[in-house]
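User: Before I run my own analysis I want an independent prediction to cross-check against. Here's the chain; please return only the structure tokens and, at the end, one sentence I can use as a sanity check.
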Amino acid sequence: MAPPSATEPENKTPSTKAPLEPGLSEEQAKVQMPKFPGPPTFEDKYEEREYLKGRLAAALRIFGKYGFDEGVAGHITLRDPVDPKTFWVNPFGIAFSLMKRSDLIQVDHTGKVIAGGKVRLLNAAAFMIHSAIHEARPDVLCAAHSHSIYGRSFCSLGRELDIITQDACAFHNDHALYTTFNGVVLAEKEGHDIAAALGPRKAALLQNHGLLTVGHSVEAAVFWFLSLEKCCHAQLLADAAATGRGGETVKVGNEEAAVTYKTVGTEMAGWFSAKPTFDVLAAETGENYLL
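Assistant: Structure tokens:
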């Protein structure tokens, strides 16, 4: 089943109005959710590029802050607004926590580094996975993958996420399970297989590997990753507790999950939910990632 977001007309303006609970009319609703602000817009694509590169550098710092690094593994990519057939990515070997806008490298569709910082090493797995996703999903601005501890633990179970919490409803019918593991992704075919498994969804669980999320903004892709990591953690804990008591977790009903998705699972909800995390990073670092 396609995620609700995939069934909307492409040119339809996303609604910023919160949906109502099942059976609740607008007249019965006593509190209305406020309209969300949105990401900035640009007439100058080069100005937009510099802004987005700053957001990508911040995203990588956030991954470092949350311990999503594992040696040199992990990558976040940004489709270039000037040349959409290319993308920006963190260079191989520079720590997430030290990343600056000037460190990022630009990669073309053949895997050639065509611009960027002094370190121009490209992670081959990053190219194989992300180039396939950006090719298959022109709607995706940003894609994120790392070997986070709870994500990779949950991915060893070979199962999709159960919808057991309000937060997990953001992934209701909107995440995929990729069940093949062939080691480090160095083959073009596997990158395309991962992209095909992801389909129109916002996230994928790569079996024996880790989490992958995408978004129409850098912020949404990052928030989906943070949230999915926490949902994996929550389910690991809940499943262990339920099994210890000889029972099982209580799942959210399909209707309730679908309605909740419309509040917590949209692209705008992802962008807005990430805003506090990016704001805190800016305050903590003095925005030195913009250098």
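Sanity check: Helices lie at 45-65, 124-136, 149-155, 188-198, 218-244, 254-264, 267-285.
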